[in-house]
Each structure stands twice: as C-alpha cells, then as structure tokens.
Write a structure and sequence with these properties.
By secondary structure, the protein is of the alpha+beta class. It has two domains: about 45 residues, no CATH class; about 150 residues, Multidrug-efflux Transporter 1 Regulator Bmrr, Chain A (Alpha-Beta Barrel), CATH 3.20.80.10. Helices cover about 30% and strands about 30% of the residues. The protein is built from six helices and nine strands. Strands 1, 2, 3, 4, 5, 6, 7, 8 and 9 form a nine-stranded antiparallel sheet that branches. β3 and β4 form a beta hairpin. About 20% of the residues are buried.
Length: about 220
C-alpha cells in the first residue's frame, strides 16, 4: 500500500485510502475482494491548439467625416451568415448595385461596395443592422438609409482572395488582434469593403481609439 501511495503522489497510505474511498466508495482492502465494484476512469488526454503565428496584415488610416448611403435590414447575430446573402440577393434584384456605382463618390473612402455593420455592440448584441451601400455625396434614394461617420482612425485589415475570406479575418480580429492591440473599439459601425474583383482582395475597416483616448 505504501508503494502505491507514494508512486501516485500521496504523502501517506492513509491519504491514498481516503481518496480511494471517496472515489470508489470502498477501501483498497475491500476492493481486492471478489465481486467488488470499482469505477473505471478513462485516460485523460490534453490537446493544445495554437493560434496566431502569422501576422495580420493591416494598416491605420485616419479619415475625415464621410457619409454612406444604402439599403439595410436588421439581422440576427446567430443567423447573420444566412440573412446577409439574402440582402445581397435582394439588392441585385432591385438594381441597387448600378445605383451604388452611379451615386458613389469615386474619391471616397472606404472604396467599393460596403457592408456596414451597425448596432451590434461588437458581437455582444443579439441583432445588428447590416447596410449594403457606398460612400456618397448624393442624397439617399427613397427607402435607403444615410449613415454619418465622424472623423476617426481606422484599422484596415486586408482579406486576400474571395469575399468569403473576410469571415476568417473577422475571426482572427476578435481572437488575436483585439486582445493584443493597443486600441479600443470605437462606438461606430464596422465596414466590410468589397473591392473590384480584379483586385482579388477585400478589406475590413474597424474604427479604433488609442487606449485611454476619450470618445
């Protein structure tokens, strides 16, 4: 008994006997008797998952105030990746993309067709507004929304390849960049910027404040 107790890290046979009894409901001596019922615990395995390792490609840009216009809907956080494509389909059917190019500011930033994510409390809310639009100097057509952005600093993350890669950027942004960066998330909408297909990349624009900076 002493050898077993010491082998498994117990300071004395008594300590081993108490622990054995708490687990199995009987003493080690009773466990040796024929018909004794013992608990069998599967071997414990530990798995480690390594995150990071490759730097996120981003830049900082300070933009003056700008206005975006577009069409949008309230979507649920847990089903957004089903509802947002439906909004894109609706926009295509209504000819909105032609209007984006017609009304968009050619010198405005962020460039491209924008997916504006507003009112979701940075993933903490149950719903958020998704507005599909563009930066514009023109008034919004009837039924569209107008979003006014104040001067702000933005962290701009690049997503190489197809638009679907933006989801991976979102995941890495929350998991890797937010905990390590020296910035706070500003209380403004985030923007997905879908660039011309020839560029083979898209961008995620995140409004940020230096830590300790007043909003």
């Amino acid at each position: 008994m002493l050898d077993i107790a010491l082998r498994y890290g117990y300071e004395s046979p008594e300590a081993f006997t108490r622990a054995f009894g708490m687990l199995h409901g009987l003493s080690p001596v009773e466990a040796r008797k024929p018909g004794a019922k013992l608990l069998v615990c599967p071997r414990m395995n530990f798995q480690f998952e390594l995150h990071g390792g490759s730097a996120m490609n981003y830049r900082l840009e300070k933009l003056p105030p700008f206005t975006a216009i577009g069409m949008g809907e309230r979507v649920r956080m847990n089903t957004a990746y089903q509802e947002v494509p439906q909004l894109w389909q609706k926009a295509a059917e209504e000819g909105a993309f032609a209007q984006f190019f017609e009304l968009g500011d050619p010198h405005g930033k962020p460039r491209g067709i924008l997916g504006i994510c507003s009112g979701g409390s940075w993933g903490q809310g149950e719903q958020f507004d998704y507005i599909l639009g563009t930066v514009s100097l023109a008034p919004a057509p009837e039924g569209w929304r107008t979003i006014l952005f104040p001067e702000c600093q933005w962290a701009v993350f690049e997503a190489e390849g197809m638009p679907e890669t933006l989801q991976e950027v979102w995941t890495r942004f929350y998991r890797e960049w937010v905990p390590a960066a020296g910035y706070e998330l500003a209380p403004l909408p985030a923007i997905e910027a879908y660039l011309h297909p020839e560029e083979n990349r898209n961008e995620l624009w995140i409004p940020v404040l230096s830590r300790g900076q007043e909003e």
